[in-house]
Every structure is written in structure tokens, then in C-alpha cells.
Amino acid sequence: MAESMLILRMCSIMLVLGFSEAKMEIITSKPDLLLGENAMLLCKAGGEGDITWQKDGEDAEEDQIEKVDETSSKLLIRNAKMEDAGRYTCLCDFDTGHIDHTSYIIFVYERPSFGETLAYHEFLEGQDVVITCMVTGKPVVEVNWERDHEKLHSEAGRITRLKDNSLQINNINRKDRGTYTCEAKIKDRPIFEKLDISISVNVPPTAKIHEEVKKVTAGPETNVSLRCLVEGVPQPNIIWTVPDSSDESRYKYNSDKSELIISSVVRSDYGEYICTAKNKISESSAMIMLDVSEHPVAVLSQKKMELEPGQTLSVSCNVSGHPMPALQWVRKTNNDHLLTVDAGGGRVRMEDGYVLVVDNVTSSDGGLYSCMAISPAGNASTDFSLQTWPGKASQDVRTIGRRESSSPQTPWLSKI
Ligand SMILES: *[C@@H]1O[C@H](CO)[C@@H](O)[C@H](O)[C@H]1NC(C)=O
Ligand SMILES: *[C@@H]1O[C@H](CO)[C@@H](O)[C@H](O)[C@H]1NC(C)=O
Ligand SMILES: *[C@@H]1O[C@H](CO)[C@@H](O)[C@H](O)[C@H]1NC(C)=O
Ligand SMILES: *[C@@H]1O[C@H](CO)[C@@H](O)[C@H](O)[C@H]1NC(C)=O
Question: What are phi and psi of 411, to 5 degrees?
């Protein structure tokens, strides 16, 4: 350590004593010369003497050299060629008797360029792709890749650089989209050009609906929402195919149409709803069945009747709903019992599945009867009032028809 300090000090002393007058330098604008450019190297010898130039150890061309004065000389590079690159040395044979020299290295380059390199690629997800970067430039061009302005990380086996500087991406996915930058740099020089290459990755659409069947009961309060899960790149457009019977004026969609809302569902909304997602790659559909049940309704031909003993009662009841409800006539007794009216040959019977018939009405037949509509969507009943003339409601109805078996849907009905 001490030794080297000593040497350094001795050098400084020599510099001050012996060479201070003869400090030589070459002045030029920059070391890097673009092919075709002109440059001038000015050598200042710092003292009078005979100045000569060499390039890479050989005497420079005479026509390149211009003497400025006794202490300086110019070397001109006109229309720079690759061969002009090299070490330029200015030598001075000083009048004082000593000789000195200094050197300057000139680099000549051809600007990096990307030729026909494509700046936009569109791929399909899952493909193995190669992104090329075709560079030219002299003397030697190095290629570096960046992704979204950060150094690209290669992923073992998936993202690799090929020998020709292309980038290979296997099984490309939607997350790989973005801007890739190819940087072409002159080897060992701070000279580079960049080209942004946009990569978009398309994904064929998929449409999914979680349920296959949606069951709702029709009614003014019933709103139904059908949701279609859609994926794809570019963002697919969604269209719905709906049953012809459904009235689309009650439909509402969310902004991307992935959700269809039907308000106040009616029976005619029943059917298949198909959501189709489509982008420029392809299309995909999903289907949901809307099963609309309707609350049953029972409608009577008359609400009440007055009959004289001996007359025949005939009152019909229509039921509707979905699924079609079962129809049951019952008689209501004073103690809130319900007695079913059977089909068959009795005096009090149900005919054709919906007509209540009472032959030879007696005063004991007077009272309330009820037509019931029974379905999984609910039950409904409508009362019918029979008044006999002279009115005399019976307390003990012994028999109104026969009953062979009890209906499993009406366990609360007593047998008669
Ligand atoms: C059904 O939709 C209608 C219209 O959008 C709305 O006014 C109503 O509150 C909704 N009813 C229910 C039960 O959500
Ligand atoms: C019951 O339905 C039949 C046939 O649909 C119809 O002719 C009749 O008028 C209806 N009766 C009532 C009371 O609605
Ligand atoms: C009604 O009663 C009378 C006598 O009580 C009888 O002759 C007639 O057959 C009965 N009619 C029916 C339809 O049962
Ligand atoms: C309809 O009636 C059946 C019996 O016939 C009963 O089991 C069911 O609970 C009733 N449903 C409603 C909604 O009242």
C-alpha cells in the first residue's frame, strides 16, 4: 500500500516537471459515429512540434489530415464506413526533443432496425407461439426482451428465447397478453432502439348456466332472474333466445346482458331460455328450462241455488292451474268436517269429474259445498251454497255418495 502511494507520488512529480507543457489531448464530439456521418478529431499537442496521425498503428491517409497550427492538427473522417472504426493516435515530435502521443477510439455503427418485424400479434389461448424480432445493425446487435417495461422473466419450459432471438411462448394464456418490447442494442455501446410488440390472446367464448331447470310460481310478485356466466376474449356479446309465447316487454337485462330478469312471471313464460355468447372466435350456448307453475283456481257455474225438494241439483266447477290441479267436491258440515263427494251411482255424486249432482233434493241437502283444486303449486277452493225450500239444514248427513278409497292427496278429508 505504502509502496503504491510512493509510486503514485513519483509519477505526479514527473508529470509536473517533465511533461506539463506537453499534455496532449484529442477533442471530438463523440466516440460513436453513425455510418455515413462526418467527424473531426482535433489533436492539441500542448506545445510546438511535428504532429502525425496513426490509425490502428498505421499512418493515417494524407487527405484526412489537416494541419491547424504548430500545436494542433485535425483528422477528418468523411462519410464514415465500418472500416473507419478503430484507435486513432496523435503523435507529436516536440521541438523540445521528446516524443509523446495520445489515442482516441472511434466506433462506427449502423443504427439498429427492426425491418419487417410485426408489431402486433393475435393468438388463440393454448397455442404454442413464436414472437420474432428481426434486427439489423452493425457491427453486432444484441437483443433483449421486456414485458410491460420490465425485464422479461422466462418461465422454465414455457417462455424461452430461441437462438434467433425470437421469444417462444408455449400454451399461451390470456395473462400473457400485453406489450412486449424488443430492444436491439449495439454490443458494448450505449446505442439501442426499442420496438413495442402488442400481443393479444383470444379465448373462445363459454356460456354456462348453473341450473338446468328453474321452478317458479306465476304471479304479479314473482320476478325471475336467469344468469348466464360468460367468459371469452374479446368480451363476447350475449343474446338470449326465449320461448315464442313469452312477452319480451317485461324483460330487463343488466348492462352486459348476462342476466335476464322477467317480472311478474306468467305461465306463458314457460320454456327454454338459451343464452348465446359470441365473439369473433366462435360462440357458445347454455340453456335453462323455466318451469312456471300456476296457482290453482276453481270457478263455479253458480255460487248459490235455491231448490225445492225433489228437484235435481247440477253445478259445475272448472279448475285451472299448472300442473293441472285435481278437482274435489266436498260438503262442509256444521262442525267443520269435510265430506268428499264421490263419483259413482249415489244420489249425491260427482259427474264427469267436475259436476256436482244431487238427485231428488231433500231439505237435509241444504248447506255449503266446496269445489277444491289441489296441486303441488297450492290449493284453492270456492264455496257453493244450496238452499232448499222450505229451508231446513240437516245436522246429520248420513250419506252423500260412496267412497271406495281415500285420496292420498287429501288425507284431511273424511270418508263418507
Ligand atoms: C319485481 O320487479 C318489479 C319491476 O322491476 C319491481 O317493481 C318489484 O318490486 C319486484 N318484485 C319483487 C318481489 O322483487
Ligand atoms: C268450464 O270449462 C268449459 C270448457 O272449457 C267451459 O265451456 C265452461 O264455460 C267453463 N265453466 C266455467 C264455470 O268456467
Ligand atoms: C226420486 O224420488 C222418487 C220418489 O221418492 C222416485 O220415484 C224417483 O225414482 C227418484 N228419482 C231419482 C232420480 O232417484
Ligand atoms: C293442499 O292440500 C293438501 C291436501 O290435499 C295438503 O297436504 C297441502 O298441504 C295443501 N297445500 C297448501 C299449500 O295448502
Answer: -70, -20
